[in-house]
Write a structure and sequence with these properties.
Layout (H helix, E strand, L loop, with lengths): L4 E9 L6 H13 L4 E10 L10 H13 L4 E4 L5 H11 L2 E3 L1 H12 L3 H18 L5 H4 L15 H36 L4 E6 L5 H9 L16 E7 L2 E7 L9 H6 L1 H8 L3 E7 L5 H14 L9 E6 L19 E2 L8 H12 L2
Helix pairs in contact: 4-5, 5-7
The structure holds guanosine-5'-triphosphate and magnesium ion.
The site of guanosine-5'-triphosphate has 23 residues, from helix 8.
């Protein structure tokens, strides 16, 4: 993104005000994870969403003034806007607007390294863009070739734009399908060789990559930043001289649009086909409970029930809890409290993995 100085607008329903601070904080973390400079930020309590502009006129007036005073380049609305709301807001506030999905797509775009990752982000972005063309930009709605001889009669720019995007989407889907075939072949070989597969899933920043590194002695990027991991890593894990395969995956976040989840289908398939799913939770985060629910929601969307007995909950960052009185030997067998950073509880976790998956 070229824009640097942003204004974070966090609209929340007054009836959900108890969630406000946590979600506002997350909006800031999202912005910082892509190097945007937060020049200004404010949350706006509303009774109900205005279908045309999300917020009410008074709020918009306030935002417009602050945009001018603080010379804002971009306003980040921490909610998902309909294409019409986005267009109306840009007109009224007279500034570029990005919504939550838009920002997450920017972050994903900046992080994707592998060919597949890039294709998946591209697919999600095009789908998002396509939805934005629906009754959206007026300049795209004008007729192409006034006399009607450039395009077919009545063909509008918006239709041709949409057609182009659809063609691009289909091309990308084909490419992803080819990669997916290779992935399936690998999976088939692993299954044939009976190497059990363990995947790490969890909310973004919960410590999946840190745990991955701890268990496999590797150095995948683990960073205090949302969506540090976009491309999944795979590595061999050896416990009591038995081999397992450990997979680190992209983190989840609340309100992930279905489109985005669908675009990452082949990555998420790794979870579906695994033998054990470690759900890594950040116990030190005040929002830990809601974060876990969001993860469960995404898992359900890809067809994994919350009662699936392959799921083991791993309560990470135990070192950050104030009263961390448990000793390694006293940990409840069912609940795994660990610290991926200092190694607390890791031995028990390894034992559990082994017990669950030994031949
Ligand atoms: N204190 C403490 N910090 C931890 C622990 N585990 C991870 N962290 C920190 O939490 C931050 C996020 O860790 P990551 O391993 O990158 O988290 P992730 O779940 O892979 O995040 P994404 O890839 O962004 O979804 C990093 O700053 C880690 O150092 C832990 O047990 N204790
Ligand atoms: Mg990670």
């Amino acid at each position: 993104m070229n824009e640097k100085e942003i204004f974070i607008v966090h609209p929340y329903l007054k009836k959900n005000r108890f969630q406000r601070d946590k979600q506002f904080k997350e909006a800031k973390q999202l912005s910082l994870s892509i190097n945007l400079e937060i020049k200004d930020s404010k949350s706006f309590g509303i009774e109900k969403v205005n279908p045309k502009t999300f917020l009410n006129d008074g709020n918009l007036d306030f935002i417009r003034k602050r945009v001018i005073i603080n010379q804002i380049d971009l306003v980040f609305f921490n909610c998902n806007l309909s294409p019409i709301q986005q267009r109306n807001l840009e007109k009224t506030i007279n500034c570029k607007i990005i919504d939550r999905t838009g920002l997450i797509l920017e972050i994903f775009g900046a992080r994707a390294k592998s060919n597949e990752g890039k294709l998946q982000v591209n697919l999600a972005s095009l789908q998002y863009q396509k939805s934005r063309l629906v009754r959206s930009w007026t300049h795209l709605e004008r007729q192409r070739g006034g006399a009607g001889f450039m395009g077919g009669p009545g063909e509008s720019q918006i239709e041709s734009d949409r057609r182009q995007i659809t063609e691009q989407i289909n091309r990308i889907k084909k490419k992803i399908l080819t990669i997916d075939k290779t992935r399936r072949l690998h999976r088939y070989r692993r299954q044939k060789n009976r190497i059990p597969i363990i995947t790490l899933v969890g909310y973004t920043n919960s410590g999946k990559s840190t745990l991955f590194n701890n268990l496999t002695n590797s150095s995948t990027l683990a960073k205090n930043m949302l969506f540090a991991t976009l491309d999944s890593s795979i590595k061999k894990l050896n416990i009591n001289s038995q081999n397992f395969i450990l997979i680190d995956t992209v983190g989840f976040i609340r309100d992930l649009p279905t489109n985005l989840i669908a675009a990452f289908k082949s990555t998420l398939d790794e979870i579906i086909f695994s033998d054990l799913i470690l759900h890594v939770r950040d116990v030190s985060d005040k929002d830990s409970h809601n974060q876990a629910n969001e993860v469960v929601k995404v898992l359900e969307e890809i067809g994994i029930n919350s009662c699936d007995d392959r799921i083991i909950e791993v309560f990470n960052k135990y070192d950050l809890l104030e009263n961390n009185l448990l000793t390694d030997s006293k940990i409840n067998q069912k609940k795994h409290f660990i610290s991926a950073i200092n190694g607390f509880g890791i031995k028990k976790l390894r034992d559990t993995i082994y017990k669950n998956l030994k031949k």
